[in-house]
């Protein structure tokens, strides 16, 4: 039973480590792709990094946003959408602006909240990536550790956490060993008392039997 529990614990530990590793790799991949302007589509949702201040104060440069793919017919005036730009300066790159108008042909007139004028090029439905549905603050926090000083600080914090976890595991292990030792000592004492009780009972039975034999001899 102990072997099965130990094996199950090892399997769970390995599974957790693998899952954690996959999460870390996926997060790094998403961050790198977003920083390079690549769209990572996962089950109809994409993560993108804001690279300009054209949408301030709604969105700030460096924010990581979640964009959901929905039918263009459901988009309305006032929605923030991400689309592949046809502007010459950023042609083919993802851009995130607000819809300020919808044309009869279904194309969208967009504008950055911080911009004075609307975008020169309209956004056709085939260029729409999706609708903005929220920020991912955790990725922005991770992205803030891009400077050398912050990376060193993060490395020190991670090292301290690893040492703390190791020390805690050591303390727990020592505590368990102490409990096992106490149990072993208790079992030995118990076994000794049982053995002594058995020996006493044997001696008592022997003495009774001896006395009965003596009494029988005397009567004869």
Q: Which secondary-structure class do the elements indicate?
A: alpha+beta
Radius of gyration (Å) = 37 Å
Number of helices: 3
How many DSSP-defined strands? 7
What's the pLDDT, averaged over the residues?
76
Shape: rod-shaped
Instruction: State the end-to-end distance.
Output: 63 Å
Percent in helix: 40-55%
> Low-confidence segments, ≥5 residues, pLDDT <50?
none
Largest sheet: 7 strands, antiparallel
Instruction: Give the SSE string.
Output: HEEEEEEEHH
Q: For the largest sheet, list the strands in their spatial order.
A: 1-2-3-7-4-5-6
Residues in β-strands, percent? 15-25%
Describe this structure in words.
With about 220 residues, the chain is of the alpha+beta class. The protein has helices at about 1-35, 135-145, 150-220, and strands at about 40, 45-50, 65-70, 80-85, 95-100, 110, 130-135. The protein has a 7-stranded antiparallel sheet with strand order 1-2-3-7-4-5-6. β5 (about 95-100) and β6 (about 110) form a beta hairpin. The chain is rod-shaped, with a radius of gyration of 37 Å. About 15% of the residues are buried.
SSE order and pairing:
Layout: H1 2-35, E1 40-42, E2 45-49, E3 64-68, E4 80-84, E5 94-102, E6 108-111, E7 128-135, H2 137-143, H3 148-219
Antiparallel strand pairs: 1-2, 2-3, 3-7, 4-5, 4-7, 5-6
